């Protein structure tokens, strides 16, 4: 299948606050990250909004572009990545971004753009990756709810709260 470009929409949740609090530091880290994976940035544009909880970094690349919306109060980053060069692997870009931003959870939606031969062109592929520590926490909560007598324990807790 011959395609013109690949587009990725990446949602990064529970990012390390120190990694996303400063737009200038994040843009420098992104430029270093892009250089390590052989993507050439042509310029960088940072737009900070009045509420200080949201900023946008736009980086036009020789091979496409990358846009990053950072919501510092939510510890959330939305990345839009458009790559026009067939030799660049989106997976290497994602791994480099994960190293730079350190999110606990990532949701990726992947589109092949310009595949004129099939209807499947516009059907996105979505992947979710969760950091190991977050996975353990999520599993622990599920196990507690499955334990026999968990309803009994909840009733006891409610009685103790009323008695205090």
Automatic annotation (TrEMBL):
<keyword id="KW-0949">S-adenosyl-L-methionine</keyword>
<dbReference type="GO" id="GO:0004014">
    <property type="term" value="F:adenosylmethionine decarboxylase activity"/>
</dbReference>
<dbReference type="InterPro" id="IPR003826">
    <property type="entry name" value="AdoMetDC_fam_prok"/>
</dbReference>
<dbReference type="InterPro" id="IPR016067">
    <property type="entry name" value="S-AdoMet_deCO2ase_core"/>
</dbReference>
<dbReference type="GO" id="GO:0008295">
    <property type="term" value="P:spermidine biosynthetic process"/>
</dbReference>
<keyword id="KW-0670">Pyruvate</keyword>
<keyword id="KW-0865">Zymogen</keyword>
<keyword id="KW-0456">Lyase</keyword>
<keyword id="KW-0745">Spermidine biosynthesis</keyword>
<protein>
    <submittedName>
        <fullName>S-adenosylmethionine decarboxylase</fullName>
        <ecNumber>4.1.1.50</ecNumber>
    </submittedName>
</protein>
<dbReference type="GO" id="GO:0005829">
    <property type="term" value="C:cytosol"/>
</dbReference>
<keyword id="KW-0620">Polyamine biosynthesis</keyword>
<keyword id="KW-0704">Schiff base</keyword>
<keyword id="KW-0068">Autocatalytic cleavage</keyword>
<keyword id="KW-0210">Decarboxylase</keyword>
<dbReference type="Pfam" id="PF02675">
    <property type="entry name" value="AdoMet_dc"/>
</dbReference>
């Amino acid at each position: 299948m011959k395609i013109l470009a690949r587009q990725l929409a990446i949602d990064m949740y529970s990012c390390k606050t120190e990694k996303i609090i400063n737009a200038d530091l994040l843009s420098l880290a992104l430029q270093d990250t892009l250089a390590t994976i052989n993507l050439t940035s042509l310029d960088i544009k940072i737009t900070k909004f009045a509420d200080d909880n949201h900023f946008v970094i736009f980086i036009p690349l020789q091979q496409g572009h990358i846009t990053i919306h950072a919501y510092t109060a939510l510890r959330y980053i939305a990345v839009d990545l458009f790559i026009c060069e067939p030799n660049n692997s989106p997976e290497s870009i994602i791994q480099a971004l994960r190293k730079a931003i350190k999110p606990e959870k990532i949701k990726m939606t992947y589109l092949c753009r310009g595949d004129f031969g099939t209807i499947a062109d516009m059907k996105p592929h979505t992947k979710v990756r969760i950091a190991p520590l977050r996975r353990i926490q999520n599993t622990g909560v599920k196990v507690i709810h499955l334990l026999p007598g968990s309803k009994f324990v909840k009733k006891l807790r409610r009685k103790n709260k009323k008695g205090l």
